[in-house]
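wait is this the right file?? whatever heres the structure
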Protein backbone atom coordinates (compact mmCIF):
# COMPACT_ATOMS: atom_id res chain seq x y z
CA UNK A 1 0.00 0.00 0.00
CA UNK A 2 1.23 3.49 -0.81
CA UNK A 3 2.40 5.46 2.22
CA UNK A 4 0.22 8.47 1.36
CA UNK A 5 -2.82 6.18 1.52
CA UNK A 6 -1.75 4.93 4.95
CA UNK A 7 -1.31 8.49 6.16
CA UNK A 8 -4.69 9.55 4.81
CA UNK A 9 -6.38 6.55 6.41
CA UNK A 10 -4.57 7.28 9.66
CA UNK A 11 -5.74 10.89 9.53
CA UNK A 12 -9.26 9.51 9.19
CA UNK A 13 -8.80 7.40 12.33
CA UNK A 14 -7.90 3.97 10.89
CA UNK A 15 -5.78 2.29 13.60
CA UNK A 16 -4.55 -0.44 11.24
CA UNK A 17 -3.12 2.15 8.87
CA UNK A 18 -1.36 3.95 11.73
CA UNK A 19 0.00 0.65 13.03
CA UNK A 20 1.44 -0.09 9.58
CA UNK A 21 3.12 3.34 9.47
CA UNK A 22 4.63 2.77 12.91
CA UNK A 23 5.79 -0.72 11.98
CA UNK A 24 7.43 0.61 8.82
CA UNK A 25 9.31 3.41 10.59
CA UNK A 26 9.89 2.12 14.12
CA UNK A 27 13.34 0.65 13.50
CA UNK A 28 14.90 3.74 11.87
CA UNK A 29 13.25 5.97 14.48
CA UNK A 30 14.65 3.83 17.30
CA UNK A 31 18.09 3.72 15.71
CA UNK A 32 18.28 7.49 15.34
CA UNK A 33 17.17 7.94 18.95
CA UNK A 34 19.81 5.40 20.01
CA UNK A 35 22.43 7.23 18.00
CA UNK A 36 21.67 10.43 19.91
CA UNK A 37 21.16 8.90 23.34
CA UNK A 38 23.39 5.82 23.43
CA UNK A 39 21.01 3.95 25.72
CA UNK A 40 18.41 1.45 24.43
CA UNK A 41 15.84 2.24 27.13
CA UNK A 42 16.07 5.99 26.55
CA UNK A 43 15.93 5.41 22.80
CA UNK A 44 12.80 3.28 23.17
CA UNK A 45 11.14 5.99 25.27
CA UNK A 46 12.08 8.66 22.73
CA UNK A 47 10.77 6.51 19.87
CA UNK A 48 7.45 5.95 21.63
CA UNK A 49 7.12 9.64 22.38
CA UNK A 50 7.93 10.36 18.72
CA UNK A 51 5.03 8.27 17.48
CA UNK A 52 2.67 9.78 20.05
CA UNK A 53 3.61 13.27 18.90
CA UNK A 54 3.45 12.28 15.24
CA UNK A 55 -0.04 10.87 15.72
CA UNK A 56 -1.17 14.00 17.55
CA UNK A 57 0.16 16.15 14.68
CA UNK A 58 -0.93 13.86 11.86
CA UNK A 59 -4.01 15.94 11.00
CA UNK A 60 -1.68 18.80 10.01
CA UNK A 61 0.70 16.60 8.00
CA UNK A 62 1.08 17.66 4.36
CA UNK A 63 0.40 14.57 2.21
CA UNK A 64 2.53 15.97 -0.62
CA UNK A 65 5.66 15.59 1.57
CA UNK A 66 7.44 12.35 2.49
CA UNK A 67 6.63 10.93 5.91
CA UNK A 68 10.08 9.59 6.86
CA UNK A 69 11.96 12.93 7.08
CA UNK A 70 9.06 14.38 9.05
CA UNK A 71 9.03 11.59 11.62
CA UNK A 72 12.83 11.60 11.77
CA UNK A 73 12.81 15.32 12.59
CA UNK A 74 10.40 14.58 15.44
CA UNK A 75 12.65 11.86 16.89
CA UNK A 76 15.72 14.08 16.53
CA UNK A 77 13.93 16.79 18.53
CA UNK A 78 12.78 14.27 21.15
CA UNK A 79 16.31 12.95 21.56
CA UNK A 80 17.79 16.45 21.78
CA UNK A 81 15.26 17.35 24.47
CA UNK A 82 16.16 14.20 26.43
CA UNK A 83 19.86 15.04 26.14
CA UNK A 84 19.23 18.55 27.47
CA UNK A 85 17.31 17.07 30.40
CA UNK A 86 20.09 14.56 31.02
CA UNK A 87 22.70 17.31 30.99
CA UNK A 88 20.69 19.27 33.55
CA UNK A 89 20.42 16.13 35.69
CA UNK A 90 24.16 15.39 35.41
CA UNK A 91 24.97 18.98 36.32
CA UNK A 92 22.79 18.70 39.44
CA UNK A 93 24.37 15.33 40.29
CA UNK A 94 27.84 16.84 39.88
CA UNK A 95 26.93 19.67 42.26
CA UNK A 96 25.57 17.11 44.74
CA UNK A 97 28.70 14.97 44.41
CA UNK A 98 30.88 17.97 45.19
CA UNK A 99 28.98 18.57 48.45
CA UNK A 100 28.56 14.86 49.50
CA UNK A 101 30.93 12.59 47.53
CA UNK A 102 30.52 9.44 49.67
CA UNK A 103 26.77 9.18 48.97
CA UNK A 104 27.46 8.77 45.27
CA UNK A 105 29.17 5.42 45.94
CA UNK A 106 26.55 3.93 48.26
CA UNK A 107 24.45 2.41 45.49
CA UNK A 108 25.37 0.79 42.22
CA UNK A 109 23.42 0.88 39.02
CA UNK A 110 24.59 -2.41 37.49
CA UNK A 111 23.02 -1.65 34.13
CA UNK A 112 25.37 -1.67 31.19
CA UNK A 113 24.81 -0.10 27.81
CA UNK A 114 24.89 -2.65 25.01
CA UNK A 115 26.86 -1.55 21.98
CA UNK A 116 26.51 -2.61 18.39
CA UNK A 117 29.17 -5.20 17.60
CA UNK A 118 29.99 -4.56 13.96
CA UNK A 119 33.40 -3.08 13.26
CA UNK A 120 32.02 -0.42 10.93
CA UNK A 121 29.45 0.77 13.42
CA UNK A 122 32.12 0.88 16.12
CA UNK A 123 34.23 3.06 13.87
CA UNK A 124 31.29 5.33 13.02
CA UNK A 125 30.57 5.68 16.75
CA UNK A 126 34.06 7.13 17.24
CA UNK A 127 33.05 10.10 15.10
CA UNK A 128 31.32 13.20 16.48
CA UNK A 129 27.56 13.06 16.93
CA UNK A 130 27.08 15.33 13.91
CA UNK A 131 29.17 13.03 11.72
CA UNK A 132 27.32 9.97 13.04
CA UNK A 133 23.95 11.55 12.23
CA UNK A 134 25.03 12.42 8.70
CA UNK A 135 26.29 8.90 7.95
CA UNK A 136 23.38 7.17 9.67
CA UNK A 137 20.63 9.13 7.93
CA UNK A 138 22.26 9.18 4.50
CA UNK A 139 23.69 5.65 4.31
CA UNK A 140 22.11 3.48 6.99
CA UNK A 141 18.60 4.82 6.29
CA UNK A 142 19.32 5.64 2.64
CA UNK A 143 17.72 9.07 2.92
CA UNK A 144 18.41 11.61 0.20
CA UNK A 145 20.34 14.78 0.97
CA UNK A 146 17.13 16.80 0.95
CA UNK A 147 15.39 14.32 3.28
CA UNK A 148 18.40 14.36 5.59
CA UNK A 149 18.32 18.17 5.58
CA UNK A 150 14.62 18.15 6.40
CA UNK A 151 15.07 15.60 9.21
CA UNK A 152 17.85 17.65 10.84
CA UNK A 153 16.37 21.06 10.05
CA UNK A 154 19.43 22.28 8.13
CA UNK A 155 20.01 23.42 4.52
CA UNK A 156 20.73 20.73 1.90
CA UNK A 157 24.09 22.32 1.10
CA UNK A 158 25.07 21.94 4.75
CA UNK A 159 24.23 18.24 4.57
CA UNK A 160 26.47 17.85 1.56
CA UNK A 161 29.45 19.57 3.20
CA UNK A 162 28.98 17.85 6.58
CA UNK A 163 28.61 14.48 4.90
CA UNK A 164 31.78 15.03 2.88
CA UNK A 165 33.74 15.90 6.03
CA UNK A 166 32.22 12.98 7.96
CA UNK A 167 33.17 10.49 5.26
CA UNK A 168 36.72 11.86 5.13
CA UNK A 169 37.04 11.47 8.89
CA UNK A 170 35.59 7.94 8.70
CA UNK A 171 38.05 7.01 5.95
CA UNK A 172 40.86 8.35 8.11
CA UNK A 173 39.81 6.23 11.09
CA UNK A 174 39.43 3.13 8.95
CA UNK A 175 42.82 3.57 7.31
CA UNK A 176 44.48 4.28 10.68
CA UNK A 177 42.89 1.15 12.20
CA UNK A 178 43.91 -0.90 9.18
CA UNK A 179 47.51 0.32 9.42
CA UNK A 180 47.63 -0.39 13.18
CA UNK A 181 46.24 -3.92 12.71
CA UNK A 182 48.76 -4.66 9.97
CA UNK A 183 51.61 -3.20 12.01
CA UNK A 184 50.66 -5.41 14.98
CA UNK A 185 50.39 -8.45 12.72
CA UNK A 186 53.89 -7.83 11.35
CA UNK A 187 55.70 -6.64 14.49
CA UNK A 188 53.47 -7.90 17.30
CA UNK A 189 51.63 -5.75 19.90
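ok assuming it is, sequence goes like this
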Amino acid sequence: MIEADLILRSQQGDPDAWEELVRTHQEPVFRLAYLFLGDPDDAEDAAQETFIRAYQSLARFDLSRPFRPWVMSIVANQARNRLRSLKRYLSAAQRFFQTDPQSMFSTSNGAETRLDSTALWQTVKRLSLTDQQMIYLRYFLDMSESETAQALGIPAGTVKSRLHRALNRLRGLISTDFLEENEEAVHGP
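DSSP finds eight helices and no strands in the chain. so i think its the right one actually
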